[in-house]
Write a structure and sequence with these properties.
Layout: E1 6-9, H1 27-40, E2 44-47, E3 49-50, E4 56-57, H2 60-73, E5 78-81, H3 91-95, E6 104-108, E7 112-114, E8 117-119, H4 123-136, E9 139-144, H5 147-158, E10 168-173, H6 183-196, E11 201-206, H7 211-221, E12 224-227, E13 234-236, E14 239-240, H8 244-258, H9 265-272
Parallel strand pairs: 1-2, 1-12, 2-5, 5-6, 6-9, 9-10, 10-11, 11-12
Antiparallel strand pairs: 3-4, 7-8, 13-14
Helix pairs in contact: 1-2, 1-8, 5-6, 7-8
Length: 276
């Protein structure tokens, strides 16, 4: 079983400061939180950025400022920027931060009802973005919300449109409009992925109440785990988490009890096929 990779989704585009007062918003806050999460065991930072007033942003300057601060404070943290942005952000703006050439970035594999909104990822846009990954040399992290998206990604791999090896797939489970984070769903997604893209690695991001159950499942099945305020703001039901680092520390502690090693930065790069 591979060492465990813990990804932290610090902020997201939808979580509000009013709901989680400890949400890191500014580049300085995000960099400090990234350092605390790294020290707690996280090795990958899933990065959305905000303006100072909390508004979701895709500005290159804001991404660059935050990335530079994170690299200064915690140079071994692997940065994975979001190309999802907020629901409704124009696709050109979503693609733009890839030009900063972080180690990784997300590629959403399909359109989905997202609560009361529609998160649009058309086949044309997905192919265009996948080709831009090839041009920039950034490693994709493929986000899938239901099993049909795995089949679609497998077709793009066979067509040579997605080429990174090994491909890393993130199951995002529990979004209103997508598959829930039930144990049988995690098991099915992992087995289906193994059939369609045998060399792929996988992790799971459980949304809301599914965060901890999905994490348990991934821990024992050899998958990887994403936690953080983008996905879940609570530590226990009705009890707000103190920080993203607190959520990371819990997963690290569980992994230790289970006897599964936390991946070092070098091991993460080997597992995900990133440049040394």
């Amino acid at each position: 079983m591979d060492p465990l990779i813990i990804t932290t989704a610090l902020t997201g585009a939808e979580t509000r400061k009013e709901d989680q007062p400890n949400l890191p918003i500014t580049p300085e806050e995000q960099a400090l939180e990234a350092k605390a999460c790294f020290e707690a065991g996280s090795r990958v930072l899933h990065l959305h950025v905000r303006e100072d007033d909390g508004t979701p942003s895709q500005r290159l300057e804001r991404f660059k400022q935050t990335i530079d601060l994170v690299r200064e404070m915690v140079p071994e943290m692997i940065i994975q920027i979001s190309t999802g942005g907020a629901v409704g952000v124009p696709f050109e703006e979503r693609m733009a931060p890839l030009s900063l050439k972080p180690e990784m970035a997300t590629l959403n594999a399909g359109t989905i009802n997202f609560g009361d909104e529609v998160f649009v990822n058309s086949p044309e846009e997905i192919v265009r973005l996948a080709k831009y990954f090839q041009e920039t040399g950034v490693a994709p992290e493929i986000e899938v919300y239901e099993s049909g998206m795995i089949d679609y990604v497998a077709r793009l791999v066979r067509r040579g449109i997605i080429t990174h090896e090994p491909l890393h797939i993130q199951f995002v489970l529990g979004v209103p409009g997508g598959m829930s984070g039930k144990a049988k769903n995690v098991l099915y997604m992992a087995e289906h992925l193994k059939e369609e893209i045998p060399s792929a690695t996988w992790g799971v991001a459980g949304i809301g109440r599914w965060q901890l159950p999905c994490a348990f499942q991934a821990l024992i099945m050899g998958g990887h785990i994403r936690v953080g305020f983008e996905d879940n703001i609570y530590y226990h039901k009705g009890v707000l988490a103190e920080s993203n680092a607190q959520l990371v520390a819990r997963i690290s502690r569980l992994a230790s009890e289970f006897g599964r090693k936390i991946a070092s930065p070098k091991e993460v790069k080997e597992i995900l096929g990133l440049e040394p």
